[in-house]
Design goal:
Layout (H helix, E strand, L loop, with lengths): L7 E4 L10 E2 L7 E4 L4 E3 L4 E11 L4 E6 L2 H7 L1 E3 L4 E3 L6 E8 L5 E3 L4 E9 L27
Antiparallel strand pairs: 1-5, 2-3, 3-11, 4-10, 5-9, 6-8, 6-11, 7-9
Bound molecules: deoxyuridine-5'-triphosphate and magnesium ion (MG).
Amino acid sequence: MTEPIAIRLRRLPHGEGLPLPAYATDGAAGMDVVAAEDVVLAPGARCAVATGFAIAIPTDCEVQVRPRSGLALRHGITCLNTPGTIDSDYRGEVKVILANLGREEVTIARGDRIAQLVPAPVLRARIDEVAVLDDTARGHGGFGSTGR
Ligand SMILES: O=c1ccn([C@H]2C[C@H](O)[C@@H](COP(=O)(O)OP(=O)(O)OP(=O)(O)O)O2)c(=O)[nH]1
Ligand SMILES: [Mg+2]
């Protein structure tokens, strides 16, 4: 196992008393994040839910905000923009954009685990504009061109 990357975390006033993001098991890929506020999500509604903290991550990393499968399966709750992207230069509060895709109203209570944070390396690209791209067997085929 490689060394964990260090994420500096600043707790905000409304995050006092909440558990910090943490791995639920030794092999978990994501650190669970809890809501810092109560939220009621009507069917079809969405909300940027406060977490009560801000972070600073290494410049060659991002943190992805991913949904929890239990909430998705049981309640139709997902992260609308999944995977959410936390940029290394973002210093505002981390928020989780939850959406209720189910048919029932769902109540999220402060302290409920609502999403998971997965750090990932970032490759940065340079765009080189060209007149012609190299040929390939696939060419312009896509969107199911290889069959079902
Ligand atoms: O689920 C998310 C997604 C984003 N953010 C914050 C951190 C991220 O660094 C910033 C910008 O996110 P993104 O680039 O996805 O949104 P944008 O619409 O492109 O906004 P911006 O113009 O601020 O980059 O918003 C969150 O707190 N939670
Ligand atoms: Mg952006």
